[in-house]
Every structure is written in structure tokens, then in C-alpha cells.
Design goal:
The protein has helices at residues 24-34, 77-82, 96-107, 120-123, 128-134, 159-166, 168-172, 186-208, 218-223, 227-233, 269-281, 293-298, 300-312, 317-326, 337-341, 344-348, 392-400, 404-412, 422-426, and strands spanning 15-18, 38-43, 87-90, 111-114, 139-142, 212-215, 252-257, 260-265, 330-333, 352-357, 361-366, 371-372, 377-378. It is of the alpha/beta class. It folds into two domains: 6-225 and 372-434, Rossmann fold (3-Layer(aba) Sandwich); 252-335, 2-Layer Sandwich (formyl-coa transferase, domain 3), CATH 3.30.1540.10. The strands form four sheets. A six-stranded parallel sheet has the order 3-2-1-4-5-6, with helices on both faces. The chain has a three-stranded antiparallel sheet with strand order 7-8-9. Strand 12 and strand 13 form a beta hairpin. Helix 1 (24-34) crosses helix 8.
């Protein structure tokens, strides 16, 4: 499947100054970069994106061949996956000359994005009023952890805490305990909400010529996924629940087949009749009272035991899913990360794109579930994530017309660098303390 040319992408011509780090903010700007925006990812000599480093991300499997290598800050797969299609700039904003460079860059940018704690951007000298003085129609997206007017505004915020404070951990848990996803789901969800806010702001500016300041508190983005729960509370009491259970579906959940797992969802009696026919054919004889949802839920333990007998006779989760799907029953084998990464169909349809990285080598990177135009061309990755400071000189020459001599002087003063300071690598979590 061919990919659209860069100039055909919806955000082509939009430039974003990206102060984000970790996962949520980089997810936002990754979406925009894949949609054609020019994203200038900003880092500082002593405050690189902490996802570059071992330490906070000290998992060898996140590095090619499980080797940190001579440049671990350029080889971390999590960083390299979330920063596809961006340009990497490193400027010391605390130095007066560095601050002046960033001011000049902001004058050329349509959007500024940050995911610091509330108030941090103001302290850095890049709050909304300061940005407006540089570019009146600028759009600022701040992805705070908690609302800036909240008593929690100064607290640290990570994906697991978003799941906790939003209440969503109870949706994934059961009557015994809440259950976090283990995936820090609040981060990518916040990134997607942030990207939506950004594109809406761009549309408004196109109509009115006005910029704006938007705040996307990531703890609240998780709450927005729970509308049905809030509605239920308005007319019925809180109920405990069994993990993976739904009151209006039975059977519903994850079922083991050997070492594999299968997801099944029966939402109506017609679907149950088709599942019951499979049980009958296997000699398992489900009773007549299971023909209604109320009957099935009243006898759910016995139903699940009989269903498990049928599942135990299936050769694999994939084979069981196929048999169920052929009968119009919603089912799917639970994939593993490995099975997805090696899925030939996903590679064939262009979800994965192989990219060459100067330090990490050639690897396949996942794309986005977006197709463009009547030919349904996939919007995918086109350029590997930047090495630390890889594009600083080029961007400053192209956008600010700085001479080689000026850039050499900036390098000698350590205003711009192409390798993180030893302090930054020794304390990789330092940047996250302001998120």
C-alpha cells in the first residue's frame, strides 16, 4: 500500500515546537508529524527526554539486540517509536542566547506543545502571554497532569496515577481489587485527546485568525471514557462486578485454551442459540433455562464450566475463534506483542514500516490507524526518530538563517549540543519531575 506524498498530508505546512517528553506529549506530536506537520522536538543539554535513557527505562529488551551500545540515548526503542517523523533540536533555554534562539523559533511556529506540570511553562518564560508577544496567533497546548486550578496541580503525574484518580482502574478490576492496565493507558489517551484539541484549534484559527491556549489535563481525559458509569450512577446503586463481566452479556470474558486465551462476547439470545448449537454438537447439552440472559446469568458458574469443556477440546485459541466467528459469535484470540510484531498481514498492509536509524539500525515501526483519501493510502512512518540534537544546526540555518560561524560559536558556548551531558544521563528521571 503506497503512502501519500508529504505535501498531500492534512497538516502539511504546520510547524510545531514540541517541549514534550515521556509518552503522552510525544504521542500527540507523533500523530501530528505523521499527518504532515513539521515537529521540532526540543531537548536541553542537561535535560533530555528521559525515555532516551537506561535507568528509568532500564529494560535491555528496549534496545536493539538487548545492547545499550555506545549511544544508549539514541537506541531506546520506546523513544524511537514515539518520536518518528520529528526533527531533534537541543538548545539550552536557560542561557540568554538559547532563550533568544527559542523566541526566534517560536515566531516561525504555528503551535507550541508541552506536558509539564501546571505553571512550569510560565517559569521557563514560555507561557501563553509570552508566546503571544512573539506570535499573536500562536496555539498553545498544555497537557498538564491535573487541572491548573486544582489543588493537585503541583503533584507528579504518570499514566498509572491517571488510571487510579480517574476511577478507571475499578473498571478493569473486580470486586476484590482495582486493576491498572500495566500499560499506562492514560498517556496515549491523553495524547490522542491533545491531538484532537490541537487540530480543532487549527481549524478555528483558519476561520477566525485567532490563536488560543488549550489545557488538556490528562487525569480528566481518562474520566471522559466513563460516561456510561456516571449515567448508571444516576439511577441505580454502585455494584461490584466480576472481572471481564458485563451485566448485559453472558458469556462474556477471557477464557483459557491451554496456554492461550480467547475473548468471547454473547450480547443477545440469538448469539447464544448459535453457541448452544455448538455445545449440543459436542454432546454438552446446555439446559433450556440458559436460552435467556437472566437464566444464563443466574447459572453463570455452571455455564462457564460447560463452555470451558468445549474450549478445552479446541486445538488453539485461533481455531476456536474461527469456529465461533463462522457462527456469528463475537470472538477473538488474545494476541501477544510477539504475534502482532510478526503478523504477516500487518506487514503486508503497511501497518509496520521499516526505517533506518543511524544508531539503532533498521527496524520495523508501528504506524497509525489512519487512511487518507479515496485510495485509502495509509498514513505511516517516513523517517526514523531523531538522534539527540541531530537537526539543531540544520533547523537553525533553515529557519533563522544563522551562519556556520554563528552556529560554531553557539556550539563552543554549549548553547547547542549533539550529546547529552553526563548529568542528564546519570539522572534520567529529572525531566519527568516536572510532568
Amino acid at each position: 500500500m503506497t503512502e501519500p506524498a508529504h505535501h498531500e498530508l492534512p497538516l502539511s505546512g504546520i510547524r510545531i515546537l514540541d517541549f514534550t517528553h515521556m509518552w503522552s506529549g510525544p504521542m500527540l506530536t507523533r500523530i501530528c508529524a505523521s499527518m504532515g506537520a513539521e515537529v521540532l522536538k526540543m531537548e536541553a543539554p542537561n535535560r533530555a527526554d528521559p525515555m532516551r535513557f537506561k535507568g528509568i527505562k532500564d529494560i535491555p529488551t528496549r534496545y536493539p539486540d538487548a545492547e545499550y551500545g555506545a549511544e544508549p540515548h539514541n537506541r531506546n526503542a520506546w523513544f524511537n517509536t514515539q518520536n518518528i517523523d520529528k526533527q531533534g533540536l537541543v538548545i539550552d533555554a536557560k542561557a540568554p542566547r538559547g532563550k533568544a534562539l527559542l523566541d526566534d523559533l517560536i515566531r516561525t511556529c504555528d503551535v507550541v506543545v508541552a506536558n509539564f506540570r501546571a505553571g512550569v511553562l510560565n517559569k521557563m518564560g514560555f507561557g501563553y502571554e509570552a508566546l503571544r508577544a512573539l506570535r499573536p496567533d500562536v496555539i498553545l497546548i498544555e497537557m498538564t497532569g491535573y487541572p491548573s486550578d486544582s489543588p493537585l496541580a503541583d503533584l507528579k503525574a504518570y499514566g498509572a496515577q491517571f488510571e487510579a484518580i480517574s476511577g478507571s482502574a475499578w473498571l478493569m478490576g473486580d470486586e476484590n481489587a482495582p486493576l491498572p492496565t500495566g500499560f499506562a493507558l492514560g498517556d496515549p489517551i491523553g495524547g490522542m485527546y491533545g491531538a484532537t484539541a490541537l487540530m480543532t484549534a487549527l481549524h478555528r484559527r483558519q476561520r477566525t485568525g485567532l490563536g488560543c491556549h488549550l489545557e488538556v489535563p490528562q487525569s480528566v481525559t481518562m474520566m471522559a471514557l466513563m460516561g456510561d458509569v456516571f449515567h448508571s450512577l444516576s439511577h441505580e446503586p454502585v455494584q461490584t462486578r466480576v472481572l471481564n463481566d458485563l451485566a448485559h452479556a453472558c458469556p462474556h470474558g477471557m477464557f483459557a485454551i491451554g496456554a492461550e486465551w480467547l475473548s468471547i462476547a454473547v450480547y443477545d439470545d440469538a448469539s447464544w442459540s448459535r453457541l448452544a448449537a455448538l455445545l449440543h454438537a459436542a454432546g454438552l447439552q446446555p439446559p433450556a433455562n440458559w436460552n435467556t440472559l437472566a437464566g444464563r446469568r443466574a447459572d453463570v458458574a455452571a455455564l462457564y464450566a460447560k463452555l470451558q469443556q468445549w474450549l478445552d477440546a479446541q486445538p488453539s485459541a485461533e481455531a476456536a475463534a474461527q469456529r465461533l466467528q463462522e457462527q456469528g459469535i463475537a470472538a477473538g484470540a488474545v494476541a501477544t506483542a510477539e504475534s502482532i510484531a510478526t503478523n504477516a498481514q500487518l506487514h503486508h498492509c503497511g501497518f509496520f514500516t521499516e526505517l533506518d536509524h543511524p544508531s539503532a539500525g533498521r527496524h520495523a515501526y508501528p504506524g497509525l490507524p489512519i487512511f487518507l483519501g479515496t485510495q485509502a493510502r495509509r498514513v505511516g512512518a517516513q523517517r526514523a526518530a531523531p538522534c539527540f540534537g541531530q537537526h539543531t544546526r540544520e533547523a537553525l540555518q533553515r529557519l533563522l538563517h544563522l551562519s556556520d560561524a554563528t552556529l560554531d560559536a553557539l556550539e563552543s558556548e554549549q548553547i547547542i549540543v549533539d550529546a547529552p551531558s553526563t548529568a542528564a544521563e546519570a539522572s534520567p528521571s529529572s525531566a519527568s519531575k516536572e510532568s
